[in-house]
Design a protein that fits this description.
Layout lengths: L3 E10 L19 E10 L2 E7 H7 L8 E4 L4 E4 L1 E3 L11 H8 L4 H6 L4 H10 L2 H17 L2 E7 L6 H17 L3 E9 L10 H19 L4 E6 L6 H13 L3 E6 L7 H8 L3 E4 L5 H10 L2 E4 L1 H6 L7 H7 L3 E3 L13 H11 L4 H7 L2 H5 L18 E4 L5 H5 L6 E6 L2 E5 L2 E2 L7
Length: 429
Amino acid sequence: MRPLFIRRARQLVTLAGGSAAPLVKEKMSDLHIIENGSVWIENGTITAVGSDDELARRFADRLDEADVIDARGKTVTPGLIDPHTHLVYAGSREREWTMRLDGAAYMEIMNAGGGIHATTKATREASEETLYEESKQRLDQFLLHGVTTVEAKSGYGLSLEHEIKQLEAAKRLHDTHPVDVVSTFLGAHAVPPEWKHDPDEYVRLIINEMIPEVSRRGLAEFNDVFCERGVFTPDEARRILEAGNEYGLTPKIHADEIEPYGGAELAAEVGAISADHLLRASDEGVRRMAERGVIGVLLPGTAFFLMTKAADARRLIDAGVPVALATDCNPGSSPTVSLPLVMSLACLHMRMTPAEAMAAATINAAHAIGRGHLVGSLEPGKKADLVMFNVPNYVQIMYYYGVNHVEMVIKGGEVVVKDGKVRNETKGA
């Protein structure tokens, strides 16, 4: 592989200095931007970052052997990272959207057999090949919007067989697609209809059968629970997360989305890497998350689509909680693959600044899935995942909302998106 030299970016947004720990408070606004910046890449890894003059002098005797990308007038950032998606599923639920527009509530739809249960039915009926092909199309769209790493949850199988099927499809996507896919087991997404009258037995099934088998097969790194009234109680969630810990699965938690329910407090108690949603998190829960360094993964696209008030990111950031952003891509409450749009919504509806939104979608998002040492910033030794946006400064990525400004995506030192098309779709091709 020839060296790659990205030269003369109008703004090179490096996010340098955040690899050891996620950024908090005012540090989320320090993006370490280099004007007229350049990056030298070798063997898929960033070798040097600096001004163009500096790197041109340093590599003067090797310029002829490098492939050169001219980034004049453009903004170059780390590859965007989405730390909360439900990537692998079958079916669509636009009918429920029209029901909500007519006034039906999310839990009302779910309790009537819609919501998660509708997608569970479609996912169970789909083959692993169908799940792979449908999810690959979504993953292509993520890549076209500048996302180079995604977290992917199971949770639409809700049985050992079908949870494994989802996770196997996600693993195959990771193995074959340019985007890196980090898997989370979410067997505790809902109680399936067949266990509706004995939810305790379903919890035991998750703990005694699903978690051990997922761990044995090496299909997930994280273990997540939807802790919400009418779904899983804090006590059930604690048992499931502690069981996952015993099998090496790091805790995550869907917390306090619909009402204050102790999810943020539980995340701190069990040492979760992140607590996600947090629309209704208590002040005490936020304080405990900040003390324990639990990352708050916020999902403004979900609140936007459900027509409800978004989480108060300003409150979390000012309290010292490291904040990340994600799409929550799923067929019911956030059917989007555009992390740049989510960044815009974070500024418009959650009181985040553009600088904070950029940090939240890169380095802090990387930490939310245990990848802060590998990706999320442009620093020597890190994986060469970069995005070139056709705008002169990073603020315009969010200011021109709903527009895909991505001109080029580089993944592991290879150009995988150019001129609006995915190239080299097979990893390593």
